[in-house]
Amino acid sequence: MKLQIIYNCGVTQIFxxxxxxxxxxVIKPLRIRQNEIESLNKKQxxxxxxxxxxxxxxxxxxxxxxxxxxxxxxxxxxxQKLILPEYQGGTTxxxxxxx
Length: 99
Hints:
The chain is α+β, with helices and mostly antiparallel strands and 99 residues long.
């Protein structure tokens, strides 16, 4: 599932939408393990290169731009308002739809 958001200034973004539980149970642990391997010294990292390649491949399958179904952008589908904290810009009228 993909979501398109168009901001008032005319900028359009398209995101893949994933379930929050998928982020929590799959993506987050993969990222943690990826960071652990990448933080190893070069010699130790070589021992885990196959695992690192597998993790990287799995993460790439989600695409570069994705959001969860609990994100403010996804929630803007109902109200057509992107509601963020003031320090992130506050509330903005947007046009969002699933594509």
